[in-house]
Amino acid sequence: MGASQKLQGKIDRVLKKVQEGVDVFDSIWNKVYDTDNANQKEKFEADLEKEIKKQQRYIDQIKTLIQSNEIKDKKALMHAEKQIEREMERFKICAKETKANAFSKEGLGQQPKTLFNCSCLDDLIESSIIYIFLSTKVVGSSRWLKC
């Protein structure tokens, strides 16, 4: 009887830690999307990553507990596992959005470098025209060079 109580205590501790981790993750998640400051977003994203790593350790414990034959009711453990997996998916989405936003903001801040927007295009065209003009003058006026 003592072994089953010990096992139930371990399950209760893991489930409590998982629920606390989910609550912390949710609060950090809200902070990420409430702030407009890029530095704070990066900091909060790093905090989310730390929290996900903690949750991943718990998911390993949960999986070993689920595989145990001593446990009859595994619904709570399976629910906790699903919660962690859901949080991991949310983190992936957040990380992808943060990276995409950083690059698109940088891209929006810069003027696009196309051929038509290049400030040196006029210089290039002008020098090309001069080169073509001079080369035709030299070829066409080879008599002038002989004089």
Describe the 3D structure.
The protein is 84% helix and 0% strand. It folds into two domains: 109 residues, Methane Monooxygenase Hydroxylase, Chain G, domain 1 (Up-down Bundle), CATH 1.20.58; 35 residues. The radius of gyration is 33 Å and the shape is elongated. It contains five helices and no strands. About 5% of the residues have low confidence. It has 147 residues and is mainly alpha-helical.
- Second CATH tier, the architecture of the largest domain: Up-down Bundle
Category by helix and strand content:
mainly alpha
Largest sheet descriptor: none
Q: What is the distance, rounded to the nearest whole angstrom, between the alpha carbons of the first and last residues?
A: 119 Å
CATH topology grouping of the largest domain = Methane Monooxygenase Hydroxylase, Chain G, domain 1
CATH class of the largest domain: Mainly Alpha
- Which bin fits the share of residues in helices? over 70%
So what's the overall shape? elongated
Order of helices and strands: HHHHH
Strands, total number: 0
Radius of gyration, Cα only, in angstroms?
33 Å
Structural domain tally: 2
Q: Note poorly predicted spans.
A: 110-117
Tell me, rounded to a whole number, the average pLDDT: 78
- How many alpha or pi helices? 5
Strand content: under 5%
Family: Belongs to the CNOT2/3/5 family.
Subcellular location: Cytoplasm; Nucleus
GO biological process, one term: regulation of DNA-templated transcription
Domain CCR4-Not complex component Not N-terminal: 4-112
